[in-house]
């Protein structure tokens, strides 16, 4: 496919996904927040279904030898970064996806959240170039490195390369776990409906 063709497909795909996200009011933050605070699971179930579809699709592509997955170390810097990102999402009241949608709808608060997301990513990219932890490029080798608090690579692609087990096997395993969580949510919803009707 030509570059123009790839850009056209990406534009159409992005437009369709953007429209679906805007109309459905889907939000990763709401998927967790609503389940914990309000005991409503609409977004949670949507997130789980999306994760199952993406997991199977992604690992199937990897098994066939297509796709170019990112290789990054899992370490304490990821734990700290994810914690800070989670706090930021709660303070912003939206995930990155719904922040884009709300900005497009004219929400000034979402615009500020999006702006500072870019500033944070830019500052991180500056820090990346220095040779100290976190993160230290010299210490990120893909193998466990306890001195630098890195656990090495950990995704279906690298597990397939190391152990020869097709990536789809890991994808099916993860999908079954997600399906079990989905079914547990359905049971919880039924129990809450019974309590509400009594």
Overview of the structural elements:
The protein has a two-stranded antiparallel ribbon with strand order 1-2. The termini are far apart. With 198 residues, the protein is mostly helical. The chain has helices spanning 3-24, 28-38, 42-63, 76-92, 96-104, 108-128, 156-163, 167-197, and strands at residues 73-75, 150-153. The longest helix has 31 residues, at 167-197. It folds into 2 domains: 1-39 and 72-139, no CATH class; 41-69 and 155-198, no CATH class. The protein has 8 helices and 2 strands; from the N terminus they run H-H-H-E-H-H-H-E-H-H.
**What number of domains?**
2
Structural class: mainly alpha
| Poorly predicted residue ranges | none
Beta-strand content: under 5%
Topology as H/E string? HHHEHHHEHH
**Large-scale geometry:** globular
Tally of alpha and pi helices: 8
- Overall pLDDT level: 79
User: Which strand order spans the largest sheet, edge to edge or round the barrel?
Assistant: 1-2
Distance between the termini: 60 Å
Major beta sheet summary? 2 strands, antiparallel
Number of strands: 2
Helix content: over 70%
Radius of gyration: 20 Å
Brief sketch in words of this structure:
The protein is mostly helical.
Which structural traits does this protein have?
single chain; 198 residues; two-stranded antiparallel ribbon; 8 helices; 4% strand
């Amino acid at each position: 496919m030509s570059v123009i063709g790839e850009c056209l497909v990406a534009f159409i795909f992005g437009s369709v996904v953007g429209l679906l996200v805007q109309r459905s009011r889907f939000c990763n933050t709401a998927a967790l927040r609503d389940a914990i605070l309000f005991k409503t699971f609409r977004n949670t179930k949507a997130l789980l279904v999306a994760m199952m579809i993406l997991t199977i699709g992604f690992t199937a592509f990897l098994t066939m030898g297509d796709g170019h997955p990112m290789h990054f170390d899992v370490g304490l810097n990821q734990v700290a970064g994810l914690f800070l990102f989670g706090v930021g999402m709660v303070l912003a009241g939206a995930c990155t996806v719904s922040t884009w949608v709300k900005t497009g709808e004219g929400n000034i608060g979402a615009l500020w959240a999006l702006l500072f997301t870019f500033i944070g990513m830019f500052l991180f990219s500056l820090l990346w170039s220095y040779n100290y932890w976190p993160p230290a490029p010299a210490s990120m080798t893909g193998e466990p490195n306890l001195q630098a608090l890195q656990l090495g690579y950990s995704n279906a692609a690298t597990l397939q390369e190391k152990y020869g087990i097709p990536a789809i096997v890991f994808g099916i395993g993860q999908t079954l776990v997600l399906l079990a969580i989905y079914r547990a949510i359905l049971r919880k919803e039924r129990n809450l409906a019974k309590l509400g009707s009594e």
